[in-house]
Every structure is written in structure tokens, then in C-alpha cells.
Amino acid sequence: MTVQRIGVLTGGGDAPGLNAVIRAVVKSACNSGIECIGLEDSFDGLIEPGRSRPLTPRDVTGILRLGGTILGTTNRGNPFAHPIVTSEGTKDYSDRVVEMFHKMGLGALVVIGGDGTLAIAHQFYRLGIPVVGVPKTIDNDIAGTTNCFGFDTAVAFATDAIDRLHTTAEAHKRIMVVEVMGRYAGWIALYSGVGGGADAILIPEIPFDLTALAERLMERDRWGARFSIVVVAEGAFPKGGKLELLEEAQQGHVERLGGIGARVCSALAKVTGKETRSVVLGHLQRGGAPTSFDRVLATRFGAKAVELIKQDDFGTMVASAPPDIVARRLEDVVGKAKTVPPDFDLVLTARALGVTFGD
Ligand code: F6P
């Protein structure tokens, strides 16, 4: 083992369990005689001086159960995307990051983030920084790992919300439409939809047909179940149609999805003649304390990242491959989103129970 000091940062949108990873990294590194430096607000901590601090086990005591991240994060923090004009010409901030990394005496970098942040980490690995990635996203769409921490917490919250919507839907005999996050993957919608007993689940992987969807909900009415719950992934879209956006992509920032729930809700009102209401769960899915599953997964990921550093196994990402936590090469996972296969077991199970995907 050669590394004596490591940096740790969190990038992209937050997810419940980030603090549990930081805690596991700091505790297991310090217990192996490796010093930890916490870098603030993603790669900003390696661009601006004074945006980092030493982290000891004392500093991470009590953060296991906390949502958010004690290091801060940003999803506008791509050092490769911000050009600066210098006397030597126009450059981005990546050189500065490499320079600061060495100046701070770091021997390795733990990057906790989603696909975008891991892609940046991979670019820095190619520039010579010894990197280990930790996959984070409530969307659960990172390739090479069965689970990302944050997903279970988001699903638990969405399931609870669906439970609550059930009682009011039934009381008013309404169709309730609930829009959940997930970007271009339907994992949150699928798991919370099945967990909450939804009648329809619309996901990006299975474009829907509104007439078919309405017909199935009216069928419920005819046999006496006069209310319905429709879970819509923010990335779902109608056959031949397109995604609903809240904001177009801008330099260094991805497009923001949202609005499909309200669209489906008003269309269903017109076609079925029933009262409909919609709700967007939004960032509530990312807030709050991680579930015990996410705490355990995050802790295993953090400890494994330190193990990989001790073995000089860089350019890697820790991953869940039950019952093990394994290492994957970053080049094998970045840029490859893991979406729901339309013949996935849980899709087939839901269909067997009469849940419609609107197709
Ligand atoms: O990737 C996680 C996620 O919560 C997505 O599900 C969602 O589309 C996006 O982030 C929202 O990002 P922001 O916090 O920038 O609104």
C-alpha cells in the first residue's frame, strides 16, 4: 500500500446515503492509517483553494443516518466544461484539478456520484489521477451494479405516497396520477408502483397509448373499483410522442424532465370523464434519512472503495453483485445507462396481476 492521503467528494444530485459512504470511507481509511481530505461541492474542492478540510472519524460520527451530504454537491460542476482564458490560451479547469490534486499531496480520489460525475472521474483517471468511483443515484440506472444507494429510500417514500393517495382516491372515486423521478429509466416507477399496488405504471422503456390506458381504467370502474392509481415516471412518453421537459439542456447542465404526470392527468379526465388529480413527488424522493438497506449498501461501498485504494486498483467503480461488492472498470460502465428491460421479471409479474403499462 502506497497511498497515505486520499480526497473524497460528492458530485451530481444528492441521494440518501451519501453521508453513509463518506463516513465509511473516512473510518475505514483512517483505521488503515490513511488520511482523508473532504473536498467541497464536487470538483470545486479541487479548483478553488480553501474548499477542502481534513476529515477524521470524529468529523463523521453521527452522519450515518443523515440525508444530503456534509461535503455539499453540485450538478453544474464539470471542470471539463468551463473554459477559462489564460495567457497560454483558452483552457478548461481540468488542468487546475490535476495540479491541485498533486499540490494537496493526495494519492487517490474517491468520487461518489452518478453517471455524469463518474464520467468526469474517468476523464481524470485518464489524465493520471488514481480514481475509485462509488455509484450514487436514486434513479438506479448506473450500469454494472444491481443497486445504487438512494434508490431504496426513494422507492420507500414513493410507496408511502401511493398508499396515502389510495385512501383519498377511493373516497372520491378519482383517478390519481403520481409522477416520480428516474430520468430515462423507469425503476422508481416500477418498484413503487408494484410496492404501492398501482393500477397503471408508465415508464420510458414502454411508450404508452392513452386510449388503451383509459380503457383499462374504465374497465376497473365497470367491475366496481371506481378509483385508480397511475404511477408515471418523469421520463415516460406516449407512443410516437416525446419527453416532457421543464428546462432544455444548457452548457454543463442536462435537461430537466417533468410535466408528464399533469399531461396524463388532464388527458385521462377528458377521455374517461372522471375526476382526476395529479401530484409530483419531486425532490421529496431525494430528501430525508436513508433506509437501512441504503445505509448498509452505502457503508459497504465506502469500505470497498478504500480496499481498492489499498490494492492500487484504480480506474474502477465499486458495484453491487449480490451477495458481493465487486469492482468494475469505469470504462465499462460510464455512458451506459441501465434501463428496465421490457421483459424484466417485475414487469411480467405486474402484468400477470393486471397492472397496465399503457401499451
Ligand atoms: O438523477 C437524480 C434526479 O433526482 C433525477 O431523478 C431527476 O430528473 C434529477 O435528478 C433532478 O435534478 P435536479 O436536482 O437538478 O432538479
How would you sum up this structure, described in words?
- With 359 residues, the protein is α/β, with parallel strands linked by helices.
- It has 2 domains: 5-148 and 290-322, Rossmann fold (3-Layer(aba) Sandwich), CATH 3.40.50.450; 153-286 and 341-352, Phosphofructokinase domain (Rossmann fold, 3-Layer(aba) Sandwich), CATH 3.40.50.460.
- The protein is built from 11 helices and 15 strands.
- The protein has helices at residues 18-31, 57-60, 94-103, 115-126, 151-172, 187-196, 210-222, 260-272, 292-310, 330-333, 345-352, and strands at 5-10, 35-39, 52-55, 84-86, 89-91, 108-113, 131-135, 175-180, 200-202, 228-233, 245-247, 256-257, 276-280, 316-321, 324-329.
- A 7-stranded mixed beta sheet has the order 3-2-1-6-7-14-15, sandwiched between helices. The protein has a 4-stranded parallel beta sheet with strand order 9-10-8-13, with helices on both faces.
- β14 (316-321) and β15 form a beta hairpin.
- α1 (18-31) runs parallel beside α9 and α7 (210-222) crosses α8 (260-272).
- It is elongated and about 70 Å long.
- The chain starts with a strand and ends in a 7-residue tail after the last helix.
- The model has no long low-confidence stretch (mean pLDDT 95).
- It binds 6-O-phosphono-beta-D-fructofuranose.
